[in-house]
Structures are given as C-alpha cells and as structure tokens.
Amino acid sequence: MKAELDYSRGPEKTWVYGGLRVRDGQQITMASSSRNSVFYQQFLQQVEDANPTGEIWFVTDNLSSHNSLSTRTWLGDHPRIRHAFIPVGACWLNLQ
Questions:
Q1: pTM above 0.70?
Q2: Which has fewest Cβ within 10 Å: 15, 38, 50, 53?
Q3: Distance separating alpha carbons of residues 30 and 50, to the nearest angstrom
Q4: Taking 60 as the threshold, does the pLDDT of residue 96 lie above it?
C-alpha cells in the first residue's frame, strides 16, 4: 500500500539549501522557513565560512532570491563566490 502524498503550500513548509564540495565530498545543508534572499545569503555565508580560501562556484536555478538586488550586492562584497545559472527552461536537467 502506498502512503498518501501530503502536499501543501502553507507556512509550515521547510526549505533546504545544500552544497557539496566535490574535492572531498564535504557537504553543507541549511533548513529555512522561506526561500528569500536573506536565507540564501545566510547559506552562502555558511559555505564561504567552511571554505576559507579559493573560488567558490554555485550552480543554481534562476530563483529570484538567487539574483535579487540584495544578493547581487552581497556577492559584490564576497568576490570569491561565483554563480553559474542553469539556462531558463532547462529545469529538466538533473545536476545531481
């Protein structure tokens, strides 16, 4: 018997950010109550703190919080962090 799928879009939703350092398999995850720019920048800061040297690349989709004015401003103050956005309409790509 299959378990019923419980789908909702309410405030009880939890979002998870995740990153993987390919070189050694180190992973970083962060749960948040929203997918806004503030939480995304907190995640970027956690990744930066865990990687004190060298360039850091993020492959991400085009969610507005990934490219908002406040995120672009934050990234201006953190030049080691670079973004590579997947093409719009290519959500079918499995980047994992």
A1: yes
A2: 53
A3: 13
A4: no
